[in-house]
C-alpha cells in the first residue's frame, strides 16, 4: 500500500512551490480540486512530515466554554462583522472583510472586501443576502456606530421629546425590513464569526496569494469564487 515515490515527490514539490503556506487540510483539498491528486489528509500529512514541512497553522488546545445553542433554522439569525487585516500580505493595501454567517448552519451567505469597514459595505452585504436568500429575522452585531448611536453622543431636542434615540441609517434599514437588531458586548459573544475570521485569515489569505490578488477588485473576485467552495 506504499505510495509511489514519484507521487510523493510531486506532492512535496507542489507544497514547496505553488501551495507554499497552505495548511495540510486546505492543501489536500486543492490537490484533489486543481491537480487531480486524490489523497487522504493523513497521507498528505505523512508525506509533508517526512519531507520536513510543517503546517503553518498552529492549533491551540480547545478551551472549555459553555457555548450558546445554535438557532434551529437557517435565516433566523445572522452574525455580522468586519475584519481588518493584511489580506493581501503586502501586495496591496490593508482591507476590511465585511461578511455574515448563518447561526444555524455556519453558512456564509455573502461577504465582500472594502477599503474600510463602512455603512455602505453593510448595505451592499444585506442587499445581496436579501436578494439571494430573503430577509433574515435578526442580525447579531457589535456596538459599532454603523449599527447604533453611541450613548455618549448627546440627545437632540427631538429625541428628548420623543423619549428615544433616532436610529442610524443602517438601523433605519433594519427597522423598515423588520429585522431585529441584537448587540453583543464582547467578541466572545460573537464566537462563530470570530472563528470564521480566523479560518479565513488562513485559507482565504492563501487563496489570494495563489491568485496573486493585489487590489480590492481582484480580492473580491477571489473571495466570491472561494465562498461557494467553502460553504
Please supply descriptive tags for the structure shown above:
single chain; alpha/beta; 5-stranded mixed beta sheet; 8 helices; 231 residues
What is the strand and helix layout of this fold?
Blueprint: H1 5-15, H2 24-35, H3 41-50, E1 77-85, E2 95-102, E3 110-114, H4 119-133, E4 138-141, H5 157-162, H6 169-177, E5 180-183, H7 191-211, H8 216-230
Parallel strand pairs: 1-4, 4-5
Antiparallel strand pairs: 1-2, 2-3
Helix pairs in contact: 2-3, 7-8
Give a description of the structure.
The structure is a single chain. The protein has helices spanning 5-15, 24-35, 41-50, 119-133, 157-162, 169-177, 191-211, 216-230, and strands spanning 77-85, 95-102, 110-114, 138-141, 180-183. The mean pLDDT is 89. Helix 2 packs across helix 3 and helix 7 crosses helix 8 (216-230). The longest helix has 21 residues, at 191-211. A 5-stranded mixed beta sheet has the order 3-2-1-4-5, with helices on both faces. With 231 residues, it is of the alpha/beta class. It is elongated and about 80 Å long. Helix content is 43%, strand content 13%. A hairpin with a 7-residue loop joins strand 2 and strand 3 (110-114).
Our Rg estimate from Cα atoms comes to 21 Å
Mean pLDDT: 89
Order of helices and strands: HHHEEEHEHHEHH
- What is the molecular shape? elongated
Kindly state the number of beta strands: 5
The largest sheet, given as strand count, sense and whether it forms a barrel, is:
5 strands, mixed
Instruction: Tell me which oligomeric state these chains represent.
Output: single chain
* Sheet with most strands: strand arrangement: 3-2-1-4-5
Low-confidence stretches: none
How much strand content do the residues show? 5-15%
- Total DSSP helices: 8
Q: Based on helices, strands and strand pairing, what is the structural class?
A: alpha/beta
Distance between the termini: 33 Å
Roughly what percent helix?
Answer: 40-55%
Amino acid at each position: 500500500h506504499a505510495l509511489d515515490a514519484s507521487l510523493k515527490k510531486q506532492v512535496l514539490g507542489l507544497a514547496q512551490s505553488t501551495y507554499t503556506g497552505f495548511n495540510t487540510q486546505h492543501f489536500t483539498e486543492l490537490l484533489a480540486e486543481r491537480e487531480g491528486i486524490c489523497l487522504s489528509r493523513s497521507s498528505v500529512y505523512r508525506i509533508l512530515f517526512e519531507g520536513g514541512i510543517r503546517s503553518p497553522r498552529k492549533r491551540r488546545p480547545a478551551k472549555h466554554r459553555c457555548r450558546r445553542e445554535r438557532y434551529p433554522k437557517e435565516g433566523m439569525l445572522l452574525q455580522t462583522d468586519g475584519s481588518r487585516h493584511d489580506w493581501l500580505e503586502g501586495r496591496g493595501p490593508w482591507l476590511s472583510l465585511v461578511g455574515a454567517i448563518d447561526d444555524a448552519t455556519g453558512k456564509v451567505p455573502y461577504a465582500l472586501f472594502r477599503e474600510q469597514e463602512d455603512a455602505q459595505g453593510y448595505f451592499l452585504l444585506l442587499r445581496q443576502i436579501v436578494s439571494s436568500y430573503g430577509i433574515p429575522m435578526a442580525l447579531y452585531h457589535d456596538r459599532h456606530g454603523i449599527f447604533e448611536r453611541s450613548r455618549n453622543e448627546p440627545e437632540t431636542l427631538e429625541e428628548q421629546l420623543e423619549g428615544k434615540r433616532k436610529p442610524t441609517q443602517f438601523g433605519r434599514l433594519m427597522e423598515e425590513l423588520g429585522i431585529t437588531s441584537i448587540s453583543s458586548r464582547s467578541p466572545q459573544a460573537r464566537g462563530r464569526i470570530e472563528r470564521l475570521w480566523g479560518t479565513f485569515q488562513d485559507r482565504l489569505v492563501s487563496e489570494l496569494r495563489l491568485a496573486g490578488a493585489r487590489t480590492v477588485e481582484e480580492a473580491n473576485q477571489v473571495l466570491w469564487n472561494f465562498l461557494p467552495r467553502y460553504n
